[in-house]
Structure formats: C-alpha cells, structure tokens
C-alpha cells in the first residue's frame, strides 16, 4: 500500500490565477495519476505522470492549462492555470504499480473553488 | 474502448439486510476488475479486485464481489449492511491486453443504509 498526502486540502481562488497542487507519496511508485471529480460524481482522468517522461494527457486536457511535474518517484505537482469557475472541482492524486492488475491508492483530494 | 456501467445512482437498504451494488463492464481481452469506496470528504479506498481464479472475491469490511464472465458483471455484495457502509462506491475495469492498463471508472453508486 501507499500513503498519499496532498497540499493544499482546499483553496478558494480568484479567476485568472493559478494554483499548484502537491502530491507526496511515502514510497517510490512508478505511475501517478491526476483526476478531477465533481462532488459525488465520477472521476475524470486528467493525465498520467510517470517519472522521467512527459505527462500523458487525456482528451480534453492540455499541458498549457494543467502543467504537471514529476521530478522523482515520490512527488508530483499539478498546476491549474488561468482558472475559471468551471475549474472548481476536487482534484485527486493517485498512484499505482505498473500493470493493470494493481489497484490504485488515492490521496485525500484538493477541493478547489474558483470565484 | 473499455467501459463500466453502474446502472443505479443510489441504492437504499435497511441495516442488517443484504446489499448489492451492480456493475457491468466491457473490455477487450481479460478484465481486471476493482471496487473502491469513497466516504464523505475523503479520497477513494480500495475494497477488492478480481484478477483471475475464483470468481468470488472477498475484500475489506466484509464486502465481496462475484465475477460473472458470461454476464460481464462484477456486482458488489455484503450479507448484512451497516449504517457505516453508507458511502459512494465505484467499480473500475482495466485490461490485461488489447485495452488500457489504466482503469476506467464507473459513475459511482451512492449506498445509503438506513438504521
């Protein structure tokens, strides 16, 4: 298993600004994922961030809007750039071992509100 | 493309009664199937998974799920529900080959257990 922490846990931001969310894992992991979730709804995968390579973005998400860093095997950041109220959501970091048969472990989430 | 269907937005059950949360899937090749639970204001927690072998899988908190290949289903069950089981439940599928190793999540089912 893995223990994941996220910072900040919540924030209220003004439109047009940017917020960087940090994800820290207590062990080295290959794969990290960033999701967006509206409260009480399903998860939408933003991107996969593997250490040593560029993040892979899902359809509808672009690097200019959601730049991701993955400097080592225990840490990643997601930046939400030039925010608008539509970006208000819960952002979740998760980690997993290589192979589709391995479960993911999720952070507690960052609740973002954009005014 | 792989997909997951959770046909019920909400399941209501009385405490002490058995519960079932339904999940059907579509994937190329052999599936890897997962259930996750999300308690209010918390991240997702892994409950159980099916990789291969016995069709009945047992997991955390007394939950179990049965893999049915002919019906492409992976329903979550518990013999006796507790009020503390009230949460949002997500089914997910990934593929062993011919599909994505990154899991696809269902839209979630809200389980409400009444005292």
Please provide a written account of the structure.
The complex is a heterodimer of chains A (115) and B (115). Chain A is mostly beta strands and 115 residues long. Chain A is built from no helices and eleven strands. In chain A, the strands form two sheets. In chain A, strands 2, 4, 5, 6, 9, 10 and 11 form a seven-stranded mixed sheet that branches. In chain A, strands 1-3-8-7 form a four-stranded antiparallel sheet, with no helix packed on it. In chain A, strand 4 (31-37) and strand 5 (43-50) form a beta hairpin. Chain A starts with a strand and ends with a strand. In chain A, 37% of the residues are buried. Chain B is an all-beta fold and 115 residues long. In chain B, the strands form three sheets. In chain B, strands 2, 5, 6, 10, 11 and 12 form a six-stranded mixed sheet that branches. The A-B interface holds A 4, 33, 40-43, 45, 48, 92, 94, 98-101, 103-109 and B 32, 34, 36, 42-46, 49, 51, 88, 90, 94-96, 100-103, 105-108, 110.
């Amino acid at each position: 298993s893995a223990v994941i922490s996220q910072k900040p846990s919540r924030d209220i931001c003004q439109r047009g600004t940017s917020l960087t969310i940090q994800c820290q894992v207590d062990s080295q992991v290959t794969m990290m994922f960033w999701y967006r979730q509206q409260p009480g709804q399903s998860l939408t995968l933003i991107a996969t961030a593997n250490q040593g390579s560029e993040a892979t973005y899902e359809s509808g998400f672009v690097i200019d809007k959601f730049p991701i860093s993955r400097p080592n095997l225990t840490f990643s950041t997601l930046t939400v750039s030039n925010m608008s109220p539509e970006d208000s959501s819960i952002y979740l970091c998760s980690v997993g071992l290589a192979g589709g048969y391995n479960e993911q472990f999720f952070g507690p989430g960052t609740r973002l509100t954009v005014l | 493309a792989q997909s997951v269907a959770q046909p019920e937005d909400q399941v209501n059950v009385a405490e002490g009664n058995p519960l079932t949360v339904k999940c059907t899937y579509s994937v190329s090749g052999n599936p890897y199937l997962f259930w996750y639970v999300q308690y209010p204001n918390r991240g997702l927690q892994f409950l159980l998974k099916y990789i291969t072998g016995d069709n009945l899988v047992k997991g955390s908190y007394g939950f179990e799920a049965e893999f049915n290949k002919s019906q492409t289903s992976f329903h979550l069950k518990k013999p006796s529900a507790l009020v503390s089981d009230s949460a949002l439940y997500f089914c997910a599928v990934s593929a062993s080959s011919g599909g994505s190793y990154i899991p696809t999540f269902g839209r979630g089912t809200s389980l409400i257990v009444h005292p």
